[in-house]
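Good morning N.,

You mentioned wanting to compare the apo and holo forms, so I went ahead and generated the holo version with zinc ion. This is what I fed in:
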Amino acid sequence: MTITINAAFDSGNIVVDSIDGTNARLSIRKDRESDFFQWFHFRVACSAGDALELAIGGLEASAYPDGWPGYAACASYDREHWFRLDTSYDAGTLTIRHTAEGDLLWVAYFAPYSMERHHDLVASVAECEGVTYRCLGTSLEGQPIDCLEMGTGDVQVWLYARQHPGESMAEWWMEGALEKLTDPADPHARSLRQKCRFHIVPNMNPDGSRRGHLRTNFAGVNLNREWDKPSAERSPEVLCVRNAMDESGVDWAMDIHGDEAIPAVFVAGFEGIPSVTVKQSENYQTFQKTLSSNTPDFQTRLGYAVSAPGQANLSMSTTQIAERFGAVSMTLEMPFKDNDDLPDSAQGWSPERSKLLAHACLVTLDQML
Ligand code: ZN
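and this is what came out, ligand included:
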């Protein structure tokens, strides 16, 4: 029997170039009005026992060609449990081989986090004791930019995720953070809610998320290059969040992301901003040290190159917030692949580990304050 492949759903993205029996040749659609592509998410209707071979081509032109060597595709039968598939990469083509164990297989770049699940998360957290819901604005396609606020303290903490919509691990991290912070029995959550006022934006790019983009919003704009000059025309998602930050001030900020190439969890900071202070830098270094002692899934050996003094790019949120507010601000990067220091061959980096990392980050913040 011939398989069929479909991606006409929330965060779906695949182009079917040809199908021959249980073999398919596929490619990835570019983000609207941009050249970025890397995210894929589709379902395969097949028969249990089929030897599937799914070849995604043209990847030498993808956003991060270095993301493919050593990468294994994610899959699920029930859309709850995600595991890795036998995957190889050669000359721009990612080849996935799997013997079907059911009649419907879901395949994605990383375990997806749908807009429907986002609304379930926002609804359940908004109902919790002591939580205030705010809509900060709307995206270019009119979707709400949701913000959940909680805590009675003076330390202003902003957590925000999915400026890059294909980095779905970022919203799994958010689900973990929100579950912990709203657990009435959790001692670190209780302590943090006394010390801090939390402002949490689980998804800054709902249009890109629903459209199955990797990196941009509806207008093809990379939101994490808009923080020095957000506009209602190009980047209302950033404008409304930055305006709300201007109202509250910011002491601590975490921007949650995924990295295609590096097989590790790491942070990027605000080195190179014009007004950096010793105290701000020390707090950032201490956060990293404390987090690495709190979880073996975090490390400081691998990461991005640091900007030279005065050379920071202030269009990015982490640097803009550090410069604008004097905040301890950081970009947290989780791998699409795995943490190679502590690999899991069945799941790789996963929703479950993203959520546990959020717990460790919050424990660390509590210890720091
Ligand atoms: Zn990113």
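The chain has a mean pLDDT of 98.

Happy to go through it together on a call whenever suits you.

Best,
F.
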